[in-house]
Amino acid sequence: MHDSSLAHAMPKKQKTDQRGEGGSSTYGRTLAPVAVRPLAVVEVLAGMALVLALCRLMRPADPLFLEIGFPWIWLAATVFALRYGAILGVLAGLCIAAAWFVFHGGQGTMAFPEMLFAGGMAQLVITGHFSDIWSARERRLRAINAYLDDSLVALTNNHYLLRVSHERLERDILGKPFTLRDAIERVRSLPAENASRAVPSSSRSSGDAALPNADVVLDFAASGCRIGQASIFAMTAQGLDPAPAASVGAPFKPDTGDALLRECLLQKDLRHLRQTDDAQGGYLVCAPLLSASGRLFGVLIVRQMAFLSLTHENLQLLLVLLSYYADGLEQHALVAPVQSRLPQCPHEFALDLARLAHIQRCSGVRSMMAGMVFPVGTLGDAMIEQLTRQRRMLDLLWVYDQEEARVAIALLPLTDEVGVNGYFSRIAHVAQTQFGVDLAQSGAVSHSVAVDAEASAYGLEYLVLRCGRHD
């Protein structure tokens, strides 16, 4: 329906352009052409020759109508002046002057009518100039109208595309009401004291298999991925606990003989229905709660899920969410490698660094670290304050002092090299607009390094060493 309305708009524009070019009728297009054609000079000469020939036939003795009360022959020249402008109008007048010399000049009985020809030429110049002015105005208005018509068509098309995009965005938001950043922020906000009480799978029995905050994580994942029925089962020393730690929909017991579940436990990776040849299985998705150290805390089993929600984006979201949650259950093991090499590193910074490295190993989603070294003084303190105030929701900032500088290391989750360059550009823009200082000339130095998926502590240590050298 929308496409047909746009299609109807285009022919109307073309018809309007055709009417505007040269008048509203055949008579108007003939009398007043759109532009002076190359053959206009020939038309003027031929037209005036035809008019003079007719006048010669009508009045052989006075072909220029000099002896009657009104010089009618000048009307023909005036028409050409109105049609083609002042220059060709004067050419038509010169044709009349040449005709006088042809008809009367050789006889010697009549003096050249100077005032008549002077008045006629003045009339042609005035009418031709009038034609030139209004022709230029018409061309300008026609160009403006053509531009406005094109702009209207482009605006109509853009409005239609915007409406279609808006409708599609609404459908996407209804199907997926949060982003990957929202999911990480939600898991990060879970109470840390509950996560610290999680029992490792190697020493967990069936009596203490409950996973803290598992119900919150599952509810959040179900709302975002449109999961109808699913359960999280904790891993014990004897295997999967038959009692679910959290459920959405009707609770159920795990079928350890299901091919999809067996492959998930064997590979310790997410498996879904499209990856198996067993069409008789009752599970759609099986996702492990796998920490960064490789410890399996449990498995998420999905039995009912909207068909259109079984996409790569939703599966990646589930994997990242569960991995981040499992890493939170194993905080000490995650933080220890970083703080053993950098004891001054804050606990939250080291924890998120290990989590992001694990996410990169599991799902390939990259993250970056950015280091800024500011000279000690008012500028350094002000810039550190601006970095703290303007950091994004997921960004973490570690600030520490050296002998002659202040260092700020930002952890930028889900960011690549382009995002780091934009981060440095924003910092330079803030320094220039708010403090009137060029960071490069003030002694500030910036460094960046990607989060190492295999050895995140070494990447952070390398960045700290780079910031310590001030180069």
UniProtKB/TrEMBL annotation:
Residues 1-26 are annotated as: Disordered. Keywords: Membrane, Transmembrane, Transmembrane helix. The chain crosses the membrane at residues 39-58, 70-103. It comes from the Bacteria. Pfam families: PelD_GGDEF. Residues 343-466 form the PelD GGDEF domain. The keyword Glycoprotein does not apply. Signal peptide: none annotated. This is PelD-like GGDEF domain-containing protein. It comes from Paracandidimonas soli.
